[in-house]
Design goal:
With 400 residues, the chain is an alpha/beta fold. The chain contains 17 helices and 9 strands. Strand 4 and strand 5 form a beta hairpin.
C-alpha cells in the first residue's frame, strides 16, 4: 500500500502516528476486509482496537450493511444470550414482547465483539455454533434461525493463556483467530507519543479557546520514556488536564511546559496509597495474616493488663488475698483447640520485652495469690502460655 492511501485511511478514522507496527495493523485490516475471515484484534486496553473493525467493515462488501459494536464484558451474565440471540415473548419474567438479538440485527453486516475474553463459558459454545454454521436459537424458542454476519473480536487479555487455564474454549479461540491483528502499546510507538500529545492539546485549545500547551525538549523525552499503562486513553486525559490547569495564566497563544512541571502530572509507578478491598482467596486466611492478627491481639492484651495494673495501683485499692487452691490444668476437649499465641507466633523478643512480660505475669500472680488460672484470665492469655512465660521464681512452685 502506498503512503498516500495509508494516510487517507488514518485521516478518515482520526488515527495519529507513523509507527511501523501501527501501519502494519492498518494494512492487515485493509487486506482482509474484502473477505469474510473472522478477525481477532489483540492489544492492551486503550490502544485503539475499536478502529480496526470499523476499517474492516467500511472497506468490505458489507459496507452497506449494519455495524454493531458489543462489549461482552458490560452485558449482565443473565441477559447475554438474549442480547446476542434475542428472545421470544414470555421467555422469562419481563419479556413482554419478542426481541431481536445482535446476530439477527446485524444480518448481512459486521458484528464487533469487544472484550470477548469476558464471555462466560456456557455462552462460548453458542457463539461457536453461530460462527461455524450461522445457526442460532432465540431464548424461549425451539426454532433454529440463520444469520450471515462477519465477526471481528477483540481482547485485552491473552486468550491463549485463558485457554490453558480452562477459562476460554480452545475450539472457539482457533475459530476466532483466523487472522490476528495486534495493536501496539503506546510505549512501543516512540515519536507517536508526542504527536498524539500535541493533537490532544490542539483539540482542547480549539474547543475551549485556551492557549495551546507545548513541551520543552526535556519534557518530550520524559513523555516518551513514561510507560503509559493506560495507553492512548491515559495520554489524552493527561494532555487535557495539563491544558486546563496550565494555560489559565498563559500570556499569548502558547505556553511551554518543562519536564519538572510535566512530572507533576505523570502518575508515579508503584502501589496506590488508596485503600482497596481485599478478596479472600479460598475462604481462608494465609498463615502470615493469622500470625499478624495473633501478634496484634497478644500485644493488645498485654497493654490492657499493664494499664489496668497502673490504674489499680493509683487507686490504692488493696486486693484481698485469694484462697490457694491446688488444681490441675484443665484438659482441652478433642473437638476444641486452645489458641496458644506462642505456638502461632515466633517473634524475636529482646530482653526488654521479655522482662516486661515477666513483670506483668509476676504482678498478676501476686494479685491473685499465685493462682495461675486467675492470673491467666487477668492477662487474657491461656494457662499454657502463662506457664511458658513464668518468671524464674515461680517455675519451681506448685501449680495453683
Amino acid at each position: 500500500m502506498d503512503y498516500q492511501e495509508l494516510q487517507r485511511i488514518k485521516n478518515k478514522y482520526d488515527i495519529i502516528g507513523n509507527d511501523p507496527l501501527l501501519d502494519r495493523a492498518i494494512e492487515t485490516a485493509l487486506a482482509v476486509a474484502p473477505t469474510d475471515l473472522t478477525v481477532l484484534v489483540s492489544g492492551e486496553s486503550g490502544v485503539g482496537k475499536e478502529n480496526i473493525p470499523k476499517i474492516i467493515h467500511q472497506n468490505s462488501r458489507r459496507r452497506n450493511g449494519k455495524y454493531f459494536a458489543v462489549n461482552c464484558g458490560a452485558i449482565p451474565e443473565g441477559t447475554i444470550e438474549s442480547e446476542l440471540f434475542g428472545h421470544e415473548k414470555g421467555a422469562y419474567t419481563g419479556a413482554i414482547e419478542a426481541r431481536k438479538g445482535y446476530f439477527e440485527e446485524a444480518d448481512g453486516g459486521t458484528l464487533f465483539l469487544d472484550e470477548i475474553g469476558e464471555l462466560p463459558l456456557p455462552y462460548q459454545a453458542k457463539l461457536l455454533r453461530v460462527l461455524q454454521s450461522g445457526e442460532y436459537t432465540r431464548v424461549g424458542s425451539s426454532k433454529v434461525s440463520k444469520t450471515d454476519v462477519r465477526v471481528v473480536a477483540a481482547s485485552n487479555v491473552d486468550l491463549a493463556y485463558a485457554v490453558s487455564q480452562g477459562k476460554f474454549r480452545e475450539d472457539l479461540y482457533y475459530r476466532l483467530n483466523a487472522v490476528q491483528i495486534n495493536m501496539p502499546a503506546l510505549r512501543d510507538r516512540g515519536d507517536d507519543i508526542h504527536l498524539l500529545f500535541r493533537k490532544f492539546c490542539a483539540d482542547f485549545s480549539e474547543k475551549y479557546g485556551m492557549p495551546r500547551i507545548t513541551l520543552s525538549p526535556e519534557a518530550v523525552k520524559l513523555l516518551q520514556s513514561y510507560r503509559w499503562p493506560g495507553n492512548i486513553r491515559q495520554l489524552k486525559n493527561i494532555a487535557e488536564t495539563i491544558s486546563a490547569l496550565e494555560s489559565y495564566d498563559a500570556k499569548g497563544s502558547k505556553k511551554e511546559i518543562n519536564a519538572t512541571t510535566l512530572s507533576m502530572y505523570l502518575p508515579k509507578d508503584g502501589p496506590s496509597m488508596l485503600p482497596v478491598r481485599l478478596e479472600r482467596q479460598g475462604g481462608s486466611m494465609s498463615d502470615s495474616d493469622k500470625q499478624e492478627i495473633f501478634k496484634a491481639l497478644y500485644g493488645l492484651n498485654a497493654e490492657v493488663a499493664r494499664l489496668r495494673s497502673i490504674v489499680e495501683s493509683m487507686q490504692g485499692e488493696a486486693q484481698p488475698e485469694a484462697p490457694h487452691h491446688s488444681a490441675e490444668l484443665p484438659q482441652t476437649p478433642d473437638n476444641q483447640e486452645d489458641i496458644d499465641i506462642q505456638d502461632n507466633i515466633e517473634p524475636e523478643e529482646d530482653l526488654t520485652l521479655t522482662a516486661a512480660s515477666e513483670d506483668l505475669i509476676r504482678k498478676a500472680l501476686e494479685k491473685h495469690g499465685g493462682n495461675r488460672k486467675k492470673a491467666a484470665e487477668e492477662l487474657g492469655i491461656s494457662e499454657r502460655t502463662l506457664y511458658r512465660k513464668l518468671p524464674p521464681e515461680y517455675r519451681t512452685q506448685r501449680t495453683k
